[in-house]
Specification:
This protein is an alpha+beta fold. It has helices at 13-19, 34-50, 96-113; strands at 3-7, 53-60, 63-75, 78-87, 129-130. 32% of the residues lie in helices and 29% in strands. A five-stranded antiparallel sheet has the order 4-3-2-1-5, with helices on both faces. It is globular.
């Protein structure tokens, strides 16, 4: 299975719209209006500049089939990495989320080893991360 992660880009807006459905958003408050969706897209594009996280498109071959992200946050007085993901319904139950999660763990481990305060190089847009093949 050729699953890759690519940093979020303008071209991922259509993917975000595909995720913004009642079925996909039922546990997080339902679909968002277009203006909120566009604001979310802008936040995803801006994440790398914060140095605290990155959103990725999940690709199966050349097709965007989901998203996965990590970000740092405070939890009980410690810095932790939190993640979230989506896989479009036609691609669920194929191991894609597992493969994307495995690739993301590799990225987060790399980021965690970097010096404190440096931006995450894992989301600089110049590389893709290949998951399990």
């Amino acid at each position: 299975m050729d699953v890759r992660l690519e940093p979020w880009s303008e071209s991922a807006l259509d993917l975000l719209r595909g995720i913004n459905t009642p079925q996909m958003r039922r546990h997080v408050g339902g679909p968002e209006p277009e203006e909120q969706l566009l604001a979310r897209h802008r936040r995803y594009l801006a994440m790398p500049a914060t140095g605290r996280g990155c959103m990725f498109a999940v690709l199966l071959g050349d097709e965007m089939v989901g998203s996965i992200a990590y970000h740092q946050r405070d939890w009980q007085g410690e810095q932790i990495y939190e993640t979230g993901w989506n896989v479009l319904p036609p691609y669920q139950r194929r191991g894609i989320a597992f493969a994307a999660g495995t690739a993301l763990i590799t990225i987060v481990r790399e980021v965690a080893r970097q010096e404190a305060g440096r931006p995450a190089r894992a989301c600089d847009g110049r590389r893709t991360t290949r998951a399990i093949e």
